[in-house]
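Self-study notes.
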Amino acid sequence: MHRSATGVLAVFCAALMALFCAACSSDSGSEAELDETPPVVTGSYPASGGTGVSRSGPFWVAFSEPMNELSAQAAFSLAPGPVYFETDWRGDTLVVTPTALLSAGTAYTMTVGAAAEDEHGNALGAAYAVDFTTTAVQDETPPHVVSTVPVNGAIHVSGIQPVEIVWSEPMDRHSAQSAVEISPEPEDWWIEWESATMTIHHSAFPEEEPVTVAIGTGAADLSGNNLAALFALSFTTASDDTRPYLASASPANGAAGVSTGISQIVLTFSEPMDRTSFQIPADHIDARIIQVVREEPSWNASYSAITVPVMRTLLPGCTYWIRFLNVTDAAGNVIDPNPTSYEFTTAGTQTLYPVKSGAVWNLLGRYDETGTRMIEDYSPSTGNFDEVHRNGVGQTREIVHLRKTASEVYHRGRSEYDDGAYQFSMMWNDPILYLRFPLESYLGQSWNFSTTATISATRSMSLSGRCEIEAAKVNLVSGVLNGTFRGCYVHHLYADFIMYENGIPVDEGSAHQIMWLAPGVGPVQMVSQDPGYSDTLRVYDWSL
């Protein structure tokens, strides 16, 4: 059996990291506030006092309303233990399947603890417990296949239709999976389980071809009883020469004023798609989408619609985009047009240099060392704020003192640290005009600066140079996010300095800093070039 990374996961989740929940809509939020009713258990198998209960399960507990699944699973137990089991959900019912047989003729207690919560955080309140006794009779009945999807002999089957096999009882999953053979073997296939149901997912089979899924007698149930005879399912795939297209989307393609608090993106195609074909190059997807999608997207049953969870608040006034390149339907037909563009723009005002206390950008350096750039001590009345640069262990390296107005950013000075230990500070006698807004109006323009600073009673510095905005915006492909920051402004700072001791020049040098400013995110890449030295910092995550 082959197993490769799911294509859609590669598209949307190139850098899967920590999870941050997105804000809910105002309606769902008010609903959660109004629901104060605790859930209750409405039924279970086995019933309390049950005897002769199957040692293999599956067992289940039904609740009165949708539950916080992780909370309910964590609150479930089978004793005496240890008992290892798999959990699945069927609507509001928790299904539990042991991975090995329970002991014969033994009294067990199945419990859902009082801490189990519904979707709105209401706890069960009191534990629900069921006592039962397992059968002492040895299971000697071989397992068999109850049903399949598609059925044996089916024709015109979609080339990516998952193959579903329902067993008569819970199986030893390793032996069942090892016994599967598929002809012709797809490039990629994998198996998922839900209780006694085995679902084979696969890349597209050739069209108008017979397909056989065989399961050998090595497949066994939890008691070790093997399948009595080879099982074979045969069907024929459909013919299809129609190119798929993006039929609809939510938010709509080209939509404006989209809420920054949406919790998902739903894309619906005209027909079932081959999800393994969704390998989108980095220059065809917005790096900001990758930053907010931190959980695997899910497809509907027909593989014609994908739901992409948005796990963080979107940036205001920004256009989020993706270009679906060379994705195909189940028969291998390429999307029309190829590529297909999808984009939407969020509500609010875009900024190219976000300034808010607590805003943080996570950085990756030249040798993959990590660090952060954080806004601290921002005063809305004066516009003054600090950019605090720290290394990967949280030690302060530098504090840059700045001021932002509606149309400008000034560099006021800096404080130097060594592994977190304060060294010195200096403030420019004439703050340096660092940025001008709107940047669109200053493309291809530059301006000069000249200033001095006192470092100590005997030491001072002079600084002169120019700032420049490149004439054209650029698309910056991020190697750390596997996406692209589109429409970046490129800012250059050229500086020459002279250091004085008691008014006598003792040192001099020059520097060149390049900064890429991405809509909504601000500085996403910074290159420092001194004679004989160069360093690059790249943004890989942010919280603004």
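Second protein, same conventions, sequence then structure:
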Amino acid sequence: MKKINLIILSIGCTLATASLCGCDNFLDKDPQDKQTNDTYWQTETSLRTYAQDFYSSFFTGYNVDYTVFGGFFSGDNYTDDYINLNNANTYGGGYIYFPTSSTTDWNSRTATWGDNYGVIYKANVMLEKIPGMNITDEAKAHWNGVARYFRAMAYSALAKIYGGVPYYDKVTDPADEALYKDRDSYPYVAQKILEDFRYALENVRTDDTKRQVNRYVVGSYMSRELLYHATWLKYHGSTVGPDSETVDNQEIKDLLQGAIDGAQVVMNSDLYSIGNTYNALFTTDDLYNNPEVIWYREYTTGLTCNALMSYNGPENQTQGGVTQNVIESYLCTDGLPIGQSQLYMGNDDPSIWNSFQNRDPRLFQTVADSLRIMSALGVTYTEGTSPTGYATKKFLNDEWFAAGLDYTTNRLSPADAPCMRYAEVLLNYVEARYEIAQVGGEAFTQADLDASINEIRSRQLTKWGDTQAVTMPTVQLVGNSLSVNGTVINDPARDPEVDPVLWEIRRERRVELIMEGRRGEDLRRWAKFEYLNSENADGTPSKTFLGAYVNVADYEGMKSKDDNGNRTLFLFDPENPTNSDTDKGYINYLRGDDLRVFNKGELDSERYYLRAIPASEITLYKDRGFTLTQNPGW
């Protein structure tokens, strides 16, 4: 187990004996038993202590106990990878339905707004105080960089949710009317985020002791956040709805270049590399020396633990399940999609046993390769089950589970959470490089693929219990397509609106980062919420709302009905779509019409790409005679 490394930060204050030689002089003195805003800002220790409060706002990891898991597993928002079945107040999710009216959902939620503006205020205070401190210029530049990094992160979080927001880069007096300014535009806020990241990238130290933000952490998050804003503005414009304006390509190019620059600082450091592990990145108790992990949240037995592993072990995954849609996105071992590969075994019988053969080994390290369905009567399971039949194991340590350790059965897991992985930086880089080539940047080349996707594919992964390692084939750029081993990839499932190369870049990102909190953001920035619809155009259920394929006759003892003849296992048979009493087909665990409907181009749907400005903030402005503009459609 890891050694306990605790940094206990405190502000030590020495009680001084007050001179009583004059009453007026005594009353004029600063308090001697505590720090004040005038006496606090003295040393780097003061700055380091002050900055610690920023960390909990952005690096939640797997969170603690039975909470939302910080975006991991069931903690992501609307995705086509995982359907969260819980109510909105449980596990932070419940993303089954889109909100149905303009006064529901986030309209009354204030935490995202208030918490991030609290970070911004603290960062602005720090930036205001640093110039007057008696520390070196290098130290001032570093700590200015730290403050601007966290300010960029806070504004980025706000922009992702609300688009344009009021931008403040200095401490504003509560009596100043500027405190009630209306929202600045999303493109303006994005450019300010870029400026802060650039300053931080140039000035934050490359090493500022363990568990402290350094230049490579800045570069990693810079690649993530700026890629988000660049592509959101490219595919949406300045906002949503009819008032959205096209954003100039140069502004998008600047943001993409920022994402590339941040990624390259990490890639050129020679500190990080892709290893021959995948599942272990999420299930080990010490990530400190792992070259694939740039930033992580540390958990320690007896101090702070999480419950994520128990949800990927013996417990039933009642909160939701992996979808058939994402299972089909995994390539075969020849590097080709299932609709093209001769190695795919699931064409006639797409059961888990058949369809999991000859597939990208990351699939085996993410999802159990056996049917685990909660509603299958007569079958006793000793491991977790899922409403979709796909039980996740990405966050389960097989050896700990086999040994019966408590880590896998309760909230005592000490497994560290990888908040930022090198693989994501490579994926941010390759997508930004492709996108910048479309808006006037340097041409996308084979070298970009070799430095990113092909680097990730160099892993040699072994299925637990097997001895033969599998390595996915590299890809080559051929015109406006990719090829593997001389065969051009031509995925029949490709979205025709997405270029073939970009489609494969997005696929690699989806598979590598599944259930790490990225997919929901990706669909938002790509303007692809139509992937989330519960029904196809012909009215049949989409594979985002279907689970594993089951033929009841293949499973001894399995029943689809109870003793009274009531159906308990509902299946959709694409070969006989009108038969609701079938015993073969894909698990139809969410039955009903129009469960989730997104109509591209309609404001009532498009508004979901941005959340409502909190009603309480709009009222606060109004009560003081000012206007805070609401987002379109809310």
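Instructor comment on the second fold: The longest strand covers residues 293-297.
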